[in-house]
Structure formats: C-alpha cells, structure tokens
Structure to design on (447 residues):
C-alpha cells in the first residue's frame, strides 16, 4: 500500500523544509504539494503553519488549494496555523474566513503571560486518540499568539500561566495540533509516526 | 513557565566564533557539529547569528544555515545580514523558524518589522538588540556591536513591539563574552516594558549567573554561548541545576 504524505506548500511563509525532514525521520514518504492536481497523488495531508491567518488563507486561495483541501477525504493533520485555518473564522489582522472544516474561531490569546506563547509545554490529554498515543506525558514546542476558541472536539489542552487553551483536536479524519511536532524532539517524531500509520 | 535554555552560535562562516565585547574573534568549532552537540544536550532552541554579514555587507550564506537546520528537531532562529522580505522568506525556507534582525531595522528600515510580521506572523520575527550602557541610558548598537545606532534601547523595545516583533534577543556589548554575569538591570527593565518574550544573552559565566538573571529579571529564555563552547557546563547541567534550585521565571 502506498502511503504518501502530502505537505501543502502555500505561500512564502511555510516551513516546508522542517516538516518534510521530520516526516521522513518518522519513516514517511513525502510529496510537497505545489499545484491542485498534486492532492490526488497523496494518501494523507499535512497543512503546515507559519504565518498569519489572513495571509495563509489568501495564499491558499491564490494557489487554488481551498477546494482540494475541503474535498480531501483522507486524514489531514493541521499544524499550528494549519490547524487554525481549518476553523470558520480567524481574527488575525482583521476578520478572515477560514477553510470551515470545523466549527470554531481563532482569536488572540488573552492571559497574564507574555504573547506569543513560546517554548516547550505539556499537553493534558482530555480524549485519548491514536495521534497522541505514547506521547501523552511529553512536552511539545509551542510558538503562537492565537488560539482556537468555541470548539468542542478537543483531544488535549495546554496550560499557559493558568490559561488553558486547545492544543490538539480530532474530528473524523481531521487532526490538528497547536504545537509544532517537527520541532518537538523525539516526541514530535513519534506523533508524526502515529499520523503516518493511521 | 520553564525558562528556555538556548544555545547561541555566533558564526563567522565557516566557523563558530566567540568574541569578547563583540570583538577579538576566536574560532570554537563547526556550526553543524556544535548545533548537533547542543541539541543532544537538551537545548530548547538554537540561535545562529552570522555576526559579520552586516559588517562586511555581504550576502547571507543560506547554505550554511540549511546545513545547521538539517541536524535539528527543535526551533531554530537564524540571522545576520537580513535586509529584505525575500531574506526572511529564504531563511524560513532553509529551515529557520524565526528570523533575527538588528542592523537593517535600526539603521535603515524599521517598517520591515511590520511587513514581515504581517506576512510571516509575529512569532517568526526576533529583533536582536545589542545594548551598550552609557551613564543614564542604554544605546542600541549595530553591526555586531561596532556602530552606534543612536536609539535608546528602552524606547526601541517598545517601538519594535508595537511594530509586530514577536521576540527580543537582548545582548549587551558590555558584558558579552566576559563570562562575569549579565546586565541584570537592563534585562529587568526590558522584560518589564514589553509583553513579548525576551531572551537574554551576554554574560553567563556560571550556573549562579543564570540563576540570578532568572530570579531577578524573569526572562522567557536565556541564550548561552561561551559557557557551552568551552565545555564548562552542558545544557543538561544548567537545566538540572535550575530544576534542583526550583528556579522558574
């Protein structure tokens, strides 16, 4: 069985290099998706995330990637912004429509700590799933100013200065993590390996 | 939250060097070997700064950066000689997660912070500050501590925060490379002034120095160079010491 992990290359902001390297380390074969027809060649999809909600959506639109992602029926893993843009609406640099795959909104983190929230932090698993198998007690690297709100299909929360936010989600074939598995040492590689084996 | 312990590589390609007071460069090793070494020791992040790129006004050596990035599965910030949105984009595509900028924004075009933050997100923009203490203020320096930037550090940090920088790397021209402790007064002031994370560098000479900095100034991260380069301590030693002494920011 072929098992090719497509990595969506959108815009100038992506960290394709890091993701590709980490997926390969986790034992996966990768294909960087540069055009709409590439989506049919892959078995799973990773939407990376570096950049702002607004520019990210704009880039996906320019590349004609919105429909292929919305229609992709196999597993998708959104990382950081890649998870956030699965939501209906984002509030980074104005109000922007997201991919609308899940019913949620993305807003600036409001808490007592410094923003962006940067650094290794624990996840508190609320609903165990295959993606988080074996990494429940590990720390992951976070680097974000925005968080997903008004959402219920949560698999893990993370606490930052007494503020709890959504750090992992799962709904059907959609998976999302607010942290960066590609920057989280062996724990991140394990998570990616779990995704590859889905 | 736990303070990030960051290994900082000051690079004069093809070598990691270590200046004292930002001058008198000594070779300490190969960038990708040292990066791997500090990754294995448990570094939370790695900073790579080409310290002569701006000074010599030459192009950024992206291949060098890519080679270092290839060894790591932790966050990697790279800088030195960044002058354009295109430079930001290339750095990120070579495997950097954050781009460090100083000289260009101090001397010529601070607007690039706003533009880059909008395109890449604030989290990808680290503004490096090379502070020098005068009688009653700190001045921003550029070109690896060579040129006076004629900006007051405490005004400048507020400005860059408003422009959309996601992090400050605070270095001190006075204490850098001397291994005699940090400029804690400066660090405290900067941490208190801004809401974005502040990574403090320049001056770690002992585990006690790091502890003192964290307990007084509460930085988000500490970047360490000499202490690691000369194998006086490992990152593992630092983390264990801070943990045993219950030091948190």
């Amino acid at each position: 069985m072929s098992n090719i992990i497509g990595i969506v290359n959108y815009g100038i902001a992506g960290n394709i290099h890091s993701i590709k390297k980490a997926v390969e380390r986790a034992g996966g074969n990768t294909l960087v998706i540069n055009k709409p027809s590439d989506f049919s060649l892959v078995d799973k999809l990773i939407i990376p995330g570096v950049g702002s909600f607004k520019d990210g959506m704009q880039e996906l639109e320019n590349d004609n990637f919105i429909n292929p992602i919305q229609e992709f029926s196999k597993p998708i893993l959104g990382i950081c912004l890649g998870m956030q843009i699965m939501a209906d609406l984002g509030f980074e640099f104005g109000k922007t429509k997201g991919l609308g795959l899940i019913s949620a909104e993305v807003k600036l983190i409001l808490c007592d700590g410094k923003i962006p929230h940067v650094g290794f932090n624990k996840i508190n698993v609320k609903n165990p799933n295959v993606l988080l198998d074996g990494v429940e007690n590990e720390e992951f690297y976070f680097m974000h100013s925005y968080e997903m709100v008004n959402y219920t299909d949560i698999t893990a929360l993370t606490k930052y200065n007494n503020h709890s936010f959504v750090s992992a989600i799962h709904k059907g074939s959609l998976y999302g993590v607010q942290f960066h598995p590609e920057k989280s040492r062996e724990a991140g590689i394990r998570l990616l390996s779990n995704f590859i084996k889905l | 939250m736990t303070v990030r312990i960051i290994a900082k590589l000051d690079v004069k390609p093809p070598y990691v060097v270590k200046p004292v007071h930002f001058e008198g460069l000594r070779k300490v090793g190969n960038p990708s070997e040292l990066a791997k070494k500090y990754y294995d020791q448990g570094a939370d992040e790695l900073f790579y700064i080409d310290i002569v790129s701006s000074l010599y006004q030459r192009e950024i050596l992206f291949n060098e950066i890519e080679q270092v990035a290839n060894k790591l599965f932790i966050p990697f910030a790279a800088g030195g000689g960044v002058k354009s949105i295109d430079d930001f984009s290339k750095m990120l595509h070579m495997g950097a997660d954050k781009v460090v900028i100083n000289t260009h924004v101090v001397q010529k075009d601070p607007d690039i912070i706003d533009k880059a933050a909008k395109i890449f997100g604030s989290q990808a923009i680290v503004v490096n500050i090379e502070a020098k203490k005068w009688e009653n203020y700190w001045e921003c320096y550029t070109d690896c501590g060579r040129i006076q930037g004629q900006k007051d550090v405490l005004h400048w940090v507020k400005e860059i925060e408003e422009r959309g920088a996601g992090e400050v790397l605070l270095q001190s021209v006075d204490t850098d490379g001397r291994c005699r402790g940090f400029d804690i007064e400066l660090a405290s002031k900067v941490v208190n002034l801004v809401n974005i994370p502040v990574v403090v560098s320049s001056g770690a000479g002992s585990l006690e120095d790091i502890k003192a900095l964290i307990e007084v100034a509460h930085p988000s991260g500490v970047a360490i160079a000499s202490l690691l380069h000369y194998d006086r301590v490992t990152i593992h030693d630092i983390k264990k010491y801070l943990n045993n002494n219950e030091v948190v920011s």
Summary: The first strand of chain B starts at residue 4 and ends at 12. Chain B touches chain A at residues 1-2, 4, 44, 66, 69-70, 73-75, 85, 89, 92-95, 97-98, 117-124, 166-167, 195-198, 220-221 (CB under 8 Å).
